[in-house]
# Entry
Amino acid sequence: MMTLISVELFKMFKKWRTYIGIIAIGVLALIIQTALYFTGKNMIDFQMRGMEDSFIMVGNLFNGYFIARMILTLLFIHIPFLVVLAGGDLLAGEATAGTYRMILTRPVTRMQVITSKFIAGFIYVVVLVLWMAFVSLGLSLLVFGSGPLLSAGSGIVIFAQNDVLWRFLGAYAYAVLSMTTVIFISIIFSSLVQNAIGPIVSTMALIIVFLILSAVPVDFLQNIKPYLFTTHLGQWNIFFNEEVDYGEIFKSAGILFAHCTAIYAATSYIFVKKDILS
Amino acid sequence: MNSEQVIEVRGLSKKFGSLTAVNNLDLNVFRGDVFGFLGPNGAGKSTTIRMLLSLIKPTSGEIKIFGKSILKERREIYSKIGAIVEKPDFYLYLSAYKNLEILGKLSGTDVSKKKIMSMLELVGLDKRYSSKVKTFSHGMKQRLGLAQALLHDPELIILDEPTTGLDPQGMKEIRDLIIYLSREKGKTIFLSSHILHEVELISSRMIIINKGSTQVEGTVSDLLKSDKVKVTFELDKIEDALRAVKDSSWQKEFKSSYNNEISFELTKEEIAALNKFFVEKGFSVSAVVPVRSLEDYFLRITEGGSK
# Structure
């Protein structure tokens, strides 16, 4: 199994498309950091307007944590679209290239092959989120320094410097689960077709459709909203609430995990039964 | 020929919706065979090969390889099989060497540089080992396909049109390699080809299928021996030769004459006998041209649709 996983990762990281997400995140983070370096102070002043009269502000609020939080918020919406570029190609790429015939006539089971694809997809997500953590949090802390985190949600919350890092770690860990769900969805679509474009477009379309349905104020749709995976993708935000609702986090994580498990089981069934005609 | 059965297929059928691609096919391949698998386009050859390799599931029937069911003991069987299924496709963005390394790893075989380079050398690609496969011609991919099929030293080699896209020299090299693998290495080879001359040259046994069903199966020599071949003799003194034929028992095999040529329908054994007849009668035979061979036999079988 380890051989299969290492082969999958080798193939994946030899492809140009794998690096699109990594490059995009790196470039976007750098652009945001550069822009904030020159104009970010105004943003802090804007968020704190009217509060200077009532509170005494100490410490550096315009710091690496603030920048990282902002990058996380801005990029997270778009990361699914970067993730599916790699996920959509995992199985469909083999069908397009005709290499199914090569790998499935080796002494490996189809279950092993499909499992290695899912694990490779998961590892890609981990790499991507770690990279995002490095360029957004790591670099921002290096350039802008540390300090308390000003978090604007339903209200303004300022977390003490020593109360911040674990929140980021929790958010990144949750982001891994969110993006794993997305890449798994792209893999199941990938198992159904012979061209990587189909799964990429289908996964994106599914996310957009679910987001639209979630926003429609109709009882029926609001009732199913808690079961749609899109409802739970952004729950990493809870880590930046003053009181972290762990019950809510575990519930959302459980729903995403159930999605991942069901998708893995369904894809495995499809793949094991599939006639290889490519 | 060894009587140990390597491939045993019974009542194999595959339907795609209303289309029957393979219909109640039986196959027997024995150890050491170079087994020719013939049929016109759409006859069901590739579907059969895909079923042999468990890439697609049969609608009905049974496939045993090395005495074991391919559906139940796939992994064990795969470790003893090397195959090219239709055109050999590779990871185009990787080098020939890396492709073989990956496939070797999946086969659980030795993937040392020495082993991989020896395989590439065997198929004449050692000088291009670091080139990406996307830069390869179709013929080079075919050679690489053979290398990957042989990489783990399999007992049974399944080759689907292995010489397609090769130049005449390349075709001969592949034929020689197949003969070498069979005779020197004792490999069993299942060879699907539409180049009938190729099958005639290197196969010990063959089957012709059409519309998914077996038309004939047997040794190549037996199948051709039992069938008459149209042969044209080029002779001097054509009028005298025609008279000699008319006065002999060869008259019943006579078909036609034109200029200095006389045509007969003969078995392979009769060709030699008639040639001897002409020589003994003092005629000078300048050419003996069989105008019917496996091609003709194949066409008659597949067009006739019956044995």
Remarks:
- The mean pLDDT of chain A is 84.
